[in-house]
Amino acid sequence: MTNLTFEVITLFPKAFELINNLGVITRAVEKNLINVNLHDLREYGEGSYRQVDDKPYGGGSGMVLKPEPIYKANNSINKLPNSKTLLMTPQGKVLKQHDLFRWSSLDQLIIICGQYEGFDERVRCLADEEVSMGDYVLSGGEIPAITIINGLTRLLPGTLGDSGSLIDESHNSSLLEYPHYTRPPIFKDMRVPDILVSGNHEEIESWRRQKSFERTLERRSDLISNENYKKSPQMKRIIEESNQFMKFRIGNEYDNYPDW
After folding, report:
1. pLDDT tens, 44-72?
2. pTM surpassing 0.85?
3. CA angle 50, 55, 59 (to 5 degrees)
4. Which residues contact 198 (CB under 8 A, 6 or more apart)?
5. In which element (H, E) is residue 5 found?
6. CA distances from residue 179 to 162, 192, 220, 249, 254 in whole angstroms, order as listed
7. Cα(55)–Cα(60) distance, integer angstroms
8. CA-CA distance, 227 to 1, in Å (whole number)?
9. Cβ atoms within 10 A of the Cβ of 3, count?
10. Of the candidates 169, 180, 190, 249, which has an alpha carbon nearest to the alpha carbon of residue 217?
11. 35 strand-pairing partners
């Protein structure tokens, strides 16, 4: 039985052929862990030309997706009780890893892909949530939709060969992931850290937590906050283990960061 069904309303269904070449995601389809149903918006267009867009009221450049085809496509979907509808738009809330975790318990996820200059404002009431990939604009919602399908499917039991690989990934604990190394031990005069080949698993875990904190502070300090510190015992442990390192690394600038 399928664990999660994606219902995607799109003007360019062929864009989703990419899913057939995405490794573990493709295998999830083959194993019936997910099902992806594509609803071609053109089939719900109006008139003999299957019109799906029109010029915006008030003037302006570009074309706007009409509400009628989107409503018809949405109404054609058999809604499940445990379902949500997402509207892909640069005006939405920026996608975070915890959103994927929230949606991973659903039975059905309906994704409406915007296009052109956007969609008629009256489409918004169809969505439970509006989602953006970030502070930039793409030509349509297809790539963001594929991103959500990819990121969410990875979280479903049975998708990955080793489910433990999900635990320490970036953004799972408000921190970026620690550095990884594999063979050979020396490459272009760059050596694998001795701690990783020491066999001391306790020290390795401590090193990884420290490096995770260090990398987050250097690259995404906005992810570290007093709120995260107070709510997460894991964050507290990481910070406490890293205190001496941070004082050595950034000296007096340490005082400019949140009160650990």
Report:
1. 999 999 999 999 999 988 999 999 999 99
2. no
3. 175
4. 204
5. strand 4-10
6. 19, 10, 15, 18, 23
7. 8
8. 40
9. 19
10. 249
11. 5
Sign of the alpha-carbon dihedral angle for 112, 117, 119, 121: positive
Q: What is the pLDDT of residues 203-217, one digit of tens each?
A: 999 999 999 889 988
End-to-end CA distance of the chain: 48
CA dihedral sign of residues 120, 122, 126, 130: positive
Residue 82: Cβ-neighbour burial (10 angstroms; 0-12, 13-18, 19+): exposed
Q: How far apart are CA 151 and CA 142, in angstroms?
A: 14
179: DSSP letter: P
Residue indicated by tokens 């959500």: 148
Q: Which two tokens stand for residue 48?
A: 């003999």
> Tokens 């975790």, residue?
101
The interaxial angle of helices 233-250 and 201-219, nearest 10 deg, is 70
Q: Does an H or E element contain 239, and which?
A: helix 233-250
Cα–Cα distance measured from residue 132 to residue 134, given in angstroms and rounded to the nearest whole number: 5
Rounded to 5°, angle at Cα 152 from 237 and 68? 135
Can you tell me the distance from the alpha carbon of 180 to that of 162, in angstroms, rounded to the nearest whole number? Answer: 16
